[in-house]
Amino acid sequence: MQLEVRKFEPRNAVFAGPTGLEVITRLVPQAERALKSGGWLVLEISGTIAQGVTKSLSSWADLHITPDLQGIARIARARKR
């Protein structure tokens, strides 16, 4: 882990559990309850969990994963139905 990442990023964001999806699997149902129909959920993700994030958001509309400048999946966005 790079020093600048360890030093400035929230611990829960960097060390999100064994799969890296633990925070997201808790967040998605909370967002579903909190957002109005048509509301957007936007997440910064690691490229290593893009497939799991896609699965977690599979019931949402307009799901899109955007890569960063290096071509690594970085932003997930989906709209609540």
What report would you give on this structure?
It is a single chain. This protein has 81 residues and is an alpha+beta fold. The chain has helices at residues 3-8, 11-14, 22-34, 50-56; strands at 40-44, 61-67, 73-79. It has a three-stranded antiparallel sheet, with helices on one face. Strand 2 (61-67) and strand 3 form a beta hairpin. It is globular, with a radius of gyration of 13 Å. The termini are far apart. The mean pLDDT is 90.
| Mean model confidence by pLDDT | 90
Number of helical elements:
4
- Structural category is alpha+beta
CA-to-CA gap between the ends?
A: 37 Å
Which regions have little confidence, pLDDT < 50, spanning 5+ residues? none
Outline the biggest β-sheet: 3 strands, antiparallel
SSE pattern: HHHEHEE
Rg, Å, rounded: 13 Å
Q: Provide the β-strand percentage band.
A: 15-25%
- Which strand order do you get reading across the main beta sheet? 1-3-2
> Looking at the structure, what is the overall shape?
globular
The helicity comes to 25-40%
- Number of DSSP strand runs: 3
What labels describe this entry?
alpha+beta, globular, 3 strands, 81 residues, three-stranded antiparallel β-sheet, single chain, 4 helices, 37% helix
Would you summarize the structure shown here?
This protein is α+β, with helices and mostly antiparallel strands and 81 residues long. The chain contains four helices and three strands, in the order H-H-H-E-H-E-E.
